Amino acid sequence: MSAAGSGEPLGPPRSFAKRVLVTGGAGFIASHVIVSLVEDYPNYMIINLDKLDYCASLKNLETISNKQNYKFIQGDICDSHFVKLLFETEKIDIVLHFAAQTHVDLSFVRAFEFTYVNVYGTHVLVSAAHEAKVEKFIYVSTDEVYGGSLDKEFDESSPKQPTNPYASSKAAAECFVQSYWERYKFPVVITRSSNVYGPHQYPEKVIPKFISLLQHNRKCCIHGSGLQTRNFLYATDVVEAFLTVLKKGKPGEIYNIGTNFEMSVLQLAKELIQLIKETNSESEMENWVDYVNDRPTNDMRYPMKSEKIHGLGWRPKVPWEEGIKKTIEWYRENFHNWKNVEKALEPFPVQPSFV
Ligand SMILES: NC(=O)c1ccc[n+]([C@@H]2O[C@H](COP(=O)([O-])OP(=O)(O)OC[C@H]3O[C@@H](n4cnc5c(N)ncnc54)[C@H](O)[C@@H]3O)[C@@H](O)[C@H]2O)c1
To answer: Is 174 annotated in the active site?
Structure first.
């Protein structure tokens, strides 16, 4: 284990009101959550555990890396001795567990690695958290555990019917987490969120991939027909959802984090072409699109109800037009935040996905 970027010296923890462990904090969503927690909760110590995989970047955390209430620890959630020691030394009160293998396309070719990190790693973490008597354990799952649907909207009691290895590993991990509630009444909360977009997302995922391709004068590569639709939430809205669940989420409960804003991948490509290439001409737009082989399975839609989290006071606020403009601007300046990021733009094996 190695620690860096912290105002807090190594050794016995100083006194903070809460000590919060965020896993996967150098990745996309969790980096936004950490920045918000560090800035808005100076009396909380925020500990970021990340193994710094290919999609991670500590640049996502530059604005808070020297703050007194932030500490980065490089390590692997699958290393049970290390994780146990971490809970002993850091006296963790709350866990927000984001770390995972997240790229759906990759999950078809590296399925066992997804099972190992997402299922075994989560089991290691929840077991250590339980042993350490943590007061709240939030497991960040996905709408993909429901599988696809054309019209029936999923609520939290809908059955899990995942159709790809990524979604299956997230669903299996949920079962392990849930079992700690069933068996021990260990206070776990599970979230299932729609697709998230915004700054900091590694450009293997569909929105930053299309943006980066277009900004490099390359075509958007669309899986199959491009008629699959996805619901997109802006990063800051999702941060607020996690802070809501952190404060008000009830132990043993599952919360969908969704939005009615939905568009097809083809629509998405066209909209990005309009904004980046500044054209409305259908024929010019077609020149920026390339149709590639579809995934082995590709769910059509994930329609989801989110009344339960609305009941806690959360609603998405950022309009698409505003969120997508900020995202496009960010990638203009920050595409090189990751090592060898050009690889992410290649069509195979790393193709766009919707996680
Ligand atoms: N991005 C989305 O649209 C979306 C939607 C719903 C749910 N989720 C879930 O949210 C979480 C975060 O997603 P993201 O898109 O921000 O992910 P990401 O791929 O950007 O980041 C994942 C982070 O986890 C770290 N990590 C991976 N394996 C690790 C290990 N063994 N030990 C420690 N750290 C490890 C990586 O280094 C990386 O920083 C995931 O659990 C994902 O399933 C994401």
So the answer is: no
- Active-site residue, 286 included: no
Ligand 1, residues at Cβ distance < 6 Å: 23-24, 26-30, 50-53, 55-56, 76-78, 98-100, 102, 117, 121, 140, 142, 170, 193, 195-196, 202, 355
Residue 280 CA to ligand 1 centre (angstroms): 35
143 part of the active site: yes
- Report the distance separating Cα 58 and Cα 64, nearest Å: 10
Whether 217 and 243 share a structural domain: no
Same-domain check for residues 172 and 289: no
Q: Let me know how long the chain is.
A: 355
Burial of 73 (0-12, 13-18, 19+ CB in 10 A): buried
Considering the domain architecture, whether residues 202 and 188 belong to the same structural domain is answered as no
**186 and 76 in a common domain:** yes
Domain count for the chain, please give it.
Answer: 2
Mean local confidence (pLDDT), 25-53? 98
Among the ranges given (74-78, 209-213, 295-299, 303-307), the one the predictor scored with the smallest mean pLDDT: 295-299
CATH of the domain at 111: 3.40.50.720
Contact (CB, 8 A) for 319 and 236 = no
Convert the pLDDT of each residue in 173-216 to its tens digit.
999 999 999 999 999 999 999 999 999 999 999 999 999 999 99
pLDDT at 14 > cutoff 90: no
C-alpha torsion 246→250→256→261, nearest 10? -60
Expressed as residue numbers, the domain containing 269 is: 197-230+261-301+318-345
Whether 171 is covered by a domain: the verdict is yes
Pocket test for ligand 1, best of 29, 73, 110, 120 (most atoms within 8 A of CB): 29
Same domain, 21 and 79: yes
Could you tell me what percent of the chain has a pLDDT over 90? Answer: 86
| CB 146 within 8 Å of CB 168 | no
What are the structure tokens assigned to 58, written together?
A: 């500590």
**Which CATH number do you get for residue 278?**
3.90.25.10
